[in-house]
Amino acid sequence: MLSNQSPFATLIGNHLRVGAVIHKHCDFTTPPKEKFLVVASLEPRLLVLLINSEINQFYVQQRLDHFHVPIPKAEHDFLTHDSYTNCVEAHSAFDCSQIRQEIIDNYANVFKGWLTDECLEAVYHAV
Predict the structure, then answer these.
(1) How far is CA 104 from the centre of its chain?
(2) Please, what sign has the CA dihedral across residues 46, 30, 34, 51?
(3) Cβ atoms within 10 A of the Cβ of 13, count?
(4) End-to-end CA distance of the chain
(5) 31 preceded by a cis bond (ω within 30 of 0)
(6) Apex 40 CA angle, 39 and 45, nearest 5
C-alpha cells in the first residue's frame, strides 16, 4: 500500500480480504464474461472462486456438486438470484495490488460485499 494514500483510500483498499466479493471481467471463463468472485486467499497470491447462478452439469456428472456452496440472494444483496460458489477450483488471474487499486478507484463497480459468516464457513469446509 502506498504511504501517500489518504486514510479513506487505505480503508477502502482494505475491503479486499478473504470472503470479499468482487465483480470483474474474467478472460479465463468460457466465454469470457463479467463474474462475481469470492476472495479465497491473499497470500502468497490472490485466489478467487467463481460465483455461478447454477451448478454446471459437468460437476454434477463428476459428483462434484457438493463442492458448490449455496449463496442465498436473501442474505447477499449484491445478487439478483440464488447462486453457488464453485469451490472446486481457485483462480489466480488477478494481481492483488491492482484489484485493491480498482476497489479504491471504482468502489461501487468492483467491490460488492462479503459472504455471510455461514457461507464463508461452508466455503472453507468445501475447499
Answers:
(1) 17
(2) negative
(3) 21
(4) 29
(5) yes
(6) 90
pTM: 0.89
- Contact between 114 and 19 (Cβ < 8 Å): yes
Please tell me whether the peptide bond between 44 and the residue prior to it is cis, using omega within 30 degrees of 0. Answer: yes
Q: Judge whether residue 3 has pLDDT over 80.
A: no
DSSP track, 59-106? HHHTT-GGGEEEE-GGG-TT-SS-EEEE-S--B--S-HHHHHHHHHHS
Three-state DSSP state, 55: coil
Grid-cell match 480503508, residue found: 11
β pairing state of 83-86 and 33-41: unpaired
- Counting residues of the chain whose pLDDT is more than 90, the rounded percentage is 79
